[in-house]
Design brief:
single chain; 333 residues; alpha/beta; Metallo-beta-lactamase, Chain A; Arc Repressor Mutant, subunit A; 2 domains; 23% strand; globular; binds zinc ion; Glyoxylase, beta-lactamase superfamily II
């Protein structure tokens, strides 16, 4: 995606901001024209170039960053939250974040590093202690900026919200993170979906600090929940907008059914094993890549994703689990 500012509906502009060294390429921030200036949905990832990039993009529609009065952030991940805090620092913009992200945000501040401690704990439960050590060393070496993680001005709850002249529903969609929110303008038929619904990839599940509480089960419930709402244009945080939220939600539900089946089949073939062994036995990404070809960070995401599916199958009574020391061993029932 070329940098710039793309109108997706009257007065609503998609601003793709480059992301450093990440397979996703860009994060979409949406700039909404209001009588007072601009509101943003999602803030972007604060790196040294982000501010200039945002200024250049907004200038194309005759605006400046100083006109941004409110920023509604879908979830606490750094590619969505940290530049919102930077805009507040520069211009006093108000930052809004889902109330169920409060614990995760406090935990990042208390930890003081990018080490994903809870995911590492789950990796060890998944039988991948060596991978956990590798990711720990890599992330501990990354720079960490405490000022990226200052609190929002306002904690968002689910319910009605006014952005400029438009009524928007704030919808709690836990799964990708506990406090993920999407913003639904039903009148104009626009759903700002954050990472909850993405057009060409599936979001990671439960990659956050805090307790692991069946994140995939919550994610699937949050997905189905969108089918009970009017269909709308999908305005995702990564990738291109598409005409129908419902079409993509149906595809994602089918995708996860296939993944459940593939993991159950792998378990049936392998006998009782850890989530790590199941992850190594199935293909990954749209390109069906072998697990071993993924980088350590994506091996962690893949392993946690497998664990999330297996935990859900246990919850549904379709497979069993036994603890062996600090790892869980799964088997077909
Ligand atoms: Zn995210």
């Amino acid at each position: 995606m070329e940098p710039g500012c793309y109108e997706v509906a009257p007065g609503v502009h998609r601003v793709p901001l480059q992301m450093p060294a990440d397979g996703l390429g860009a994060v979409n921030v949406y700039a909404l024209e209001t009588p007072d200036g601009l509101a943003l949905v999602d803030g972007g990832w604060r790196v040294d170039t982000t501010f200039g990039e945002m200024e250049r993009a907004l200038r194309r529609i005759g605006h400046g960053t100083e006109q941004i009065h409110d920023i509604y952030v879908t979830h606490v991940h750094r590619d969505h939250y940290t530049f919102a805090v930077e805009l507040r620092r520069r211009h006093g913009s108000r930052v809004h974040l889902g109330v169920a992200e409060a614990d995760g945000l406090a935990a990042v501040g208390a930890l003081g590093s990018n080490v994903p401690t809870n995911s590492l704990h789950e990796l060890r439960r998944a039988g991948a202690p060596v991978l956990a050590d590798t990711v720990e060393a890599l992330t501990a070496a990354e720079p960490f900026y405490p000022s990226d993680w200052e609190k929002p001005d306002h904690w968002l709850a689910a319910g009605p919200l006014r952005i400029g002249q438009h009524a928007v529903d704030v919808v709690h969609t836990p799964g990708h993170t506990k406090g993920h929110m999407v913003f639904h303008d039903t009148q104009r038929g626009l759903l700002f979906s954050g990472d909850h619904v993405l057009p060409s990839i599936t979001p990671s599940i439960g990659f956050e600090l805090g307790e692991w509480d069946l994140p995939l089960g919550r994610y699937l419930d949050s997905l189905s929940g969108l089918l009970d709402r009017p269909d709308s244009q999908l305005l995702p945080a990564h990738g291109d907008p598409t005409p129908s939220v419902h079409v993509r939600v149906e595809e994602l539900l089918v995708h996860h059914d296939r993944r459940f089946a593939a993991m159950r089949d792998a378990l049936a073939t392998l006998g009782p094993v850890t989530a790590s062994a199941v992850a190594e036995a199935i293909p990954w990404t749209r390109r069906e890549r072998p697990f071993a070809t993924l980088d350590p960070f994506n091996r962690m995401i893949a392993t946690c994703e497998t664990l999330a599916h297996l935990d859900t199958l246990v919850d549904r009574g379709q497979i069993t689990v036994r603890s062996r020391g600090d790892r869980d061993v799964f088997a077909v029932a």
